[in-house]
Amino acid sequence: MSAPLIDKYRKMATFDWKKLKAAVEGEEHVRLKSEVVAKMKSEPVFHRDYRVLSREEQREVVHQRWKKIVEWGLFKDPYSDLENFHALTETLEAYDQGTSARLFLHGNVFGAAVKSMGTDRHKDLIQKTENNEIVGAFCLTEVGHGSNTAEIQTTATFDNGELVFNTPSVSAIKCWAGNLAHSATHVVVYAQLHVEGKNEGFHGFVIQVRCPRTFQTLPGITIGDMGSKPGCWQGVENGWMEFKNHRAPLSALLNKGCDITPDGKYVTSFKSASEKQSVSLGTLSVGRLGIIAKGMMACTFASTIAIRYSVARRQFGPVKGAENEIPVLEYPLQQYRLFPYLSAAICIRIFQKKFVGHFTEYMMRVIMGEKSDELSEFSKEVHALSSGAKPVATWLGVESLGEARKACGGHGYLQMSRLNTLRDDNDPSQTFEGENFMILQQTSNILLGKAQSIGSIETPMSTMSFLNQKPSKFSSWSSNPVNDVLSAYRYLTYHLLQTTSAEAYRLKASGKNSFEVRNEIQIHRAVNLSVAYTEHTMIHWVQQFLKEIEDQSVKPVLQKVLNLFSLFLLERHLATLYITGYASGGKFGEDLREKLRLAVAELKPEAIALVDSIAPDDFILHSALGASDGKAYEHIMEEFRKYTNEQPRWVCDLAQFLQKRSQGSKL
Amino acid sequence: MSAPLIDKYRKMATFDWKKLKAAVEGEEHVRLKSEVVAKMKSEPVFHRDYRVLSREEQREVVHQRWKKIVEWGLFKDPYSDLENFHALTETLEAYDQGTSARLFLHGNVFGAAVKSMGTDRHKDLIQKTENNEIVGAFCLTEVGHGSNTAEIQTTATFDNGELVFNTPSVSAIKCWAGNLAHSATHVVVYAQLHVEGKNEGFHGFVIQVRCPRTFQTLPGITIGDMGSKPGCWQGVENGWMEFKNHRAPLSALLNKGCDITPDGKYVTSFKSASEKQSVSLGTLSVGRLGIIAKGMMACTFASTIAIRYSVARRQFGPVKGAENEIPVLEYPLQQYRLFPYLSAAICIRIFQKKFVGHFTEYMMRVIMGEKSDELSEFSKEVHALSSGAKPVATWLGVESLGEARKACGGHGYLQMSRLNTLRDDNDPSQTFEGENFMILQQTSNILLGKAQSIGSIETPMSTMSFLNQKPSKFSSWSSNPVNDVLSAYRYLTYHLLQTTSAEAYRLKASGKNSFEVRNEIQIHRAVNLSVAYTEHTMIHWVQQFLKEIEDQSVKPVLQKVLNLFSLFLLERHLATLYITGYASGGKFGEDLREKLRLAVAELKPEAIALVDSIAPDDFILHSALGASDGKAYEHIMEEFRKYTNEQPRWVCDLAQFLQKRSQGSKL
Ligand SMILES: Cc1cc2nc3c(=O)[nH]c(=O)nc-3n(C[C@H](O)[C@H](O)[C@H](O)COP(=O)(O)OP(=O)(O)OC[C@H]3O[C@@H](n4cnc5c(N)ncnc54)[C@H](O)[C@@H]3O)c2cc1C
Ligand SMILES: Cc1cc2nc3c(=O)[nH]c(=O)nc-3n(C[C@H](O)[C@H](O)[C@H](O)COP(=O)(O)OP(=O)(O)OC[C@H]3O[C@@H](n4cnc5c(N)ncnc54)[C@H](O)[C@@H]3O)c2cc1C
Q: Could you tell me which pathway this protein works in (chains A, B)?
């Protein structure tokens, strides 16, 4: 076993991984990313080992790294320099989500909120934000309210030309705001605006919270940290904040579409509270696209680490003798457990990139001031799809890391595998920017709203058009599994829409109110509807990408990847396919599963090269089990040797204790 | 919201939770556990907060706690004082698996191995082990071998009346041995025994590795730590060990059934290498029953924390206004996500307790020296069931903690919820004492071995008897969901056995060797077979327990619990039920899912009282979200307030940096 086995596996592939990478990610993106990586490698502050840092240490390194990135001046505005922005973002997200959260929350959450809700009077602040002269945080969540943002309880009361902020109860204390506990000088904060004794509802404000020199909090503001957190979020200073008659100037009100006149009258151009709220929170939906990428990245890490390790790891063989043991990657079961996430890493990337393209077009039209029915349809569709894709991608991502850990056996549990930490890092992606089950309701609500217009559904991204045709049941398999899968998804989505909608009617007719109805149709119906619609779109978009791909040399392997991805997803709906009547008889399911097993097996010779095409640089990957040289044992032992012959101070106490026990027993 | 809502939910229950607890756990067990808890509460060394300790700190507290427990003299031998042993074990496991590992690895793994493989010449060592004059570790795993223990490469060579230990390669370095890195004075170590130039195969040895006074390693031995690990295992000093001509006396050989004569001849009474190996590793299967309990405990923690929090957490409501918001436990979807694990916590406990009963009977017969065909059938059946139940229970356990975290929204991600840490704590239970997918193969191998004797299968625990009758397809639902579920499982298991066995034949006939055949029948077939067999037994045993229960007042609620557990498990096989032909047509699946939703809903009024009946004492639970007083927000804020106005030292640097940015922009 002198030359690592991984080289043998590299040679099995039918394609050139660099070409595949270029085809999927774009050459420029690949080049820009490697520039960022080179920059990071050359800076000692980005170097790291496998020790677990304390809360204090972790935050200090995040601070140092953040400073470096700001100094580099690389972190550009997404709209002025899209390519650089994506390259930097992706690299940082892969390197450490804590560090990237530090930058994002300031620029893309705090900054974007001020920009989108503010007016000319906030220009100076926006300037300072872009120039990193201040540090921003985003304070929406309260101890008692996260998902139900409309009911947050912090108050901002107009008084004598100023705004007075208060926290009326424990559950109104702001919390979870990243950057807040130690660094923020300014925050965007949401509160109920009271003017002349009337609650004008949910509004966004921007206020200063600390003196930028002493970092003391301003009068009437108490800020604290939330204590320990898992994974990389230990390095993020999520804070809580309590107001007691904190006075801020009137300019704190982010006054696009509403204002308070100098003589203290509230005026607004919003037609309804919900219109105002949707503008106030509009910036949040942008974030969802970024979170889809977190899911993709999780699948990327999981499959890279576990598949490379599965080549180095040999266990059992056809005949006795350690020399006859085979790499665990050879076991069909091991492949079945890992390859679907490899295919997901690639397909979600392709899907997400296309989605970002659509979204950018949408945003451009919004920024240009377009007001049209089509644009509002566009907004709805973006909302439906992002609210479906964020849960699907993040659930897959977290699941993939759990499975990868198990597939690496005991060594997967070492800190240096990084798999448990990565799982903890990604865990909250299922919750923030919209709790997954909550936003799936948004997708199904929009779809259910279309149930009446079947036959004439038209949307800008055409993700719902297939619902116009009554789909037919399964008749036979074609030679193209992806087409077969898409047909099944169309039937599934259509039928789930029909049955969920019918169930809602039935419940309404039985006297339930719309709140009860919505709650009662979720399980097995609305939830599955949202997921089926989303997965259909994902698969369909990747299929389109494949049709348009220029480099024909990588098309066959991508086809294999998509075959697996689509069969893997569909198999999870097999029971529902039977229930909705798409097929009957055992053979359909048996066939589907056989096709799935086949699709898994077909990826085996390509697996290591596919991993090479998605894996981040070793420096970013930072996993003893997943390094590209395939020398897992060497890396493991290198780390082990650092802890040779350790004698913690309590061993003395142990020696005395054993001594005492032994004397005791002789009495 | 002055009186916590939890009290209202407590009153909804139809039963007395204390009676339920006594019925399920036994009064004596409940009493003994509360004695242990009281003892722990009174000792400051067992107090803890929510900070994450460093590797060094965590190990030091484990050492201190271990000392206290040894001083109490509570940790008795399982066979001489079963009740006390179980009460202590369960309490410690719930308190911190790291601390309990410290005790277990010494007494129940190291000690048990010496006892079972050793002879009279090891009596003194056993005495010292029981008296805690030495510290033991168990060294089986090597860097290159875990699952395939037969191929471990460490050698023990007979030379001049002594045994010489060597580590021939990097992959032969012992690793993962708990207690080894700092504390162990002695270890049981497995190696290939070479006598007169011949490899006599895999043997167990017990050797001293450190001086008990200086704790220096003995000549020819290098020991180190494995660095950082996740969760409570950070507190466990899993170590690695390398031999270079380490000489030990001949008495190191654990010589039950084999020996080396004074003149250097190897003698053995074992008939085959596999017989020897199964005796050498026999002690391991005992452990599996303990690991099933880890899965149960994980479900217990997950459902306790998430269900109690779901009552305190109110979000959304039928009409606007924070005062109209309802506890998230009211949402059918939230119930659907959590109640199955509550039912699993209770049912797995009942199953595991019964299994321990059977196992104890089995061990008694072994210890009495019985040698019979029936006993060897017993051994096989215990092996099949424990190899199935350990995966089923630990997968459910880890899954439950992940779902519970998500169900607690953002606050679930705080360290003080304990959910992520508990997930990390439980994660390796899926891997150690037999990697889950590996041992499922043992279950299916045993079942497949029975395929030929259908009609006359008889085993001591009768878990396979149902296979003797050809089961019939679904005809209609009865009034008892558990009976319906069991019928479905019988059909499922029977058919999976038939089809898996047929597939194996087909592959063999096509020229594949038995290694290939075994690998190729796993996915969708052998794996599902093992799981179905195990789940059938679990449900069946709980049903039997219910039939025999004395306290009739708790029977109805336990019936609800079992209804849910069995429907929940079966629903996961719905697609396979269709494939195997148990049912056809959408209605069957729709009905099954409706029954499942109903079973979930029926548990709602009982949920909090059920949680009370399984929840460990608050001191042990140690979760701000899950405390029995239902005051989650108060506990969260109490912790938050500890971190008020923190100013880490780097904030100075940040202030200067912002200052510089601002000056720069003005130039
Ligand atoms: C690491 C991290 C960073 C964060 N950063 C920020 C930040 O910078 N700024 C900020 O303002 N916030 C931040 N948050 C907060 C985050 O946005 C919220 O936690 C998130 O929106 C989820 O809301 P919640 O916690 O209220 O969940 P909850 O709504 O309390 O969810 C709890 C459970 O109830 C269920 N549930 C709730 N309502 C319903 C319903 N109607 N039907 C069915 N089920 C329901 C949910 O599905 C979930 O299972 C952060 C959170 C985390 C974990
Ligand atoms: C926290 C912890 C504590 C431990 N404590 C101890 C201890 O005290 N003493 C000790 O000796 N050991 C200990 N161990 C080691 C543990 O026993 C092994 O890790 C465990 O047996 C799994 O073996 P492995 O790591 O070799 O997994 P591997 O066998 O390497 O498994 C890797 C992957 O390969 C797959 N695979 C392997 N063979 C096959 C096959 N034939 N077919 C299909 N798939 C296959 C597995 O399913 C898995 O997905 C500990 C481990 C941990 C994590």
A: Lipid metabolism; peroxisomal fatty acid beta-oxidation
- Whole-angstrom Cα distance, residue A373 to residue A363? 15
- Count Cα atoms within 13 angstroms, Cβ side, for B413: 25
What's the CATH fold of domain A135-271?
Butyryl-CoA Dehydrogenase, subunit A; domain 2 (2.40.110)
Q: Ligand 2: does its nearest atom lie under 6 Å from the Cβ of A333?
A: yes
CB of A413 within 6 A of ligand 2: the answer is: yes
Give the Cα separation of B161 and A639 in Å (integer).
37
CATH architecture for residues A1-18+283-455+481-643: Up-down Bundle (1.20)
> Which of A60, A137, A68 is CA-nearest to residue A106?
A137
Task: Report the DSSP pairing between strands A155-159 and A162-166.
Answer: antiparallel
Å between A79 CA and nearest CA of chain B: 22
List pLDDT tens digits, range B382-403.
999 999 999 999 999 999 999 9
Distance from the B45 Cα atom to the nearest Cα atom in chain A, whole angstroms: 14
Q: For this structure, is A325 an active site residue?
A: no
Which ligand does the CA of A147 lie closest to?
1
Which residues of B carry a binding-site annotation for FAD?
A: 138-141, 146-147, 178, 313, 334-337, 410, 435
Which atom of ligand 2 is least distant from the CA of A332?
A: 43
Q: Please judge whether B654 and A63 are an interchain contact, meaning their C-beta atoms are less than 8 angstroms apart.
A: yes
Q: Which residues contact A42 (CB under 8 A, 6 or more apart)?
A: none
Q: Which residues line ligand 1 (CB under 6 A)?
A: A 105, 138-141, 146-147, 176-178, 233, 238, 428, 431-432, 435, 437-438, 519; B 313, 315-316, 328, 331, 333-334, 406-407, 409-411, 413
Residue nearest to atom 9 of ligand 1 (CA): A177
ipTM reported for the complex, 2 dp:
0.98
From B62, B229, B435, the mutation candidate for ligand 2 (largest count of ligand atoms within 8 A of CB) is: B435
| Nearest Cβ partner for B415 among A223, A227, A428 | A227
- What pLDDT band is residue A1 in, cutting at 50, 70 and 90? very low
CA A376, CA A365: separation in Å to the nearest integer?
Answer: 11
Ligand 1 atom closest to B328 (CA): 34
Q: Is the pLDDT of residue B172 over 70?
A: yes
**Extents of the domains making up chain B:** 136-271
**What is the distance between the alpha carbons of residues A509 and A505, in angstroms, rounded to a whole number?**
6
Q: DSSP per residue over A461-505, as a string?
A: T-SSGGGGSPPPPP----S-HHHHHHHHHHHHHHHHHHHHHHHHH
Mean pLDDT value of segment A390-409: 98
Extended beta strands in A250-366, E state: 258-260, 266-268
Annotated binding-site residue? A197: no
3-state SS, residue A206:
strand
Note the pLDDT tens digit of each residue in A69-84: 999 987 666 666 778 8
* Average pLDDT for B197-221: 96
Among A273-282, A304-313, B239-248, the minimum mean pLDDT is found in A273-282
Pocket of ligand 2 contains residue A328 by CB under 6 Å: yes
Q: Is A266 helix (H, G, I), strand (E, B) or coil?
A: strand
Classify domain B136-271 at the CATH topology level.
Answer: Butyryl-CoA Dehydrogenase, subunit A; domain 2 (2.40.110)
Contact indicator for A574, A532 with CB cutoff of 8 Å: no
**Integer Cα distance of A69 and A657 in angstroms:** 52
Q: Which ligand approaches the C-alpha of residue B241 most closely?
A: 2
pLDDT per residue over A420-449, tens digit each?
A: 999 999 999 999 999 999 999 999 999 999
Average pLDDT, chain A: 95
Q: Probe ligand 1: pick from A438, A441, A530, max atoms within 8 Å of CB? A: A438
DSSP secondary structure, A550-578, as one string = S-GGGHHHHHHHHHHHHHHHHHTTHHHHH
**The tokens 């089923």 sit on which residue?**
B392
Q: What is the mean pLDDT of residues B608-618?
A: 98
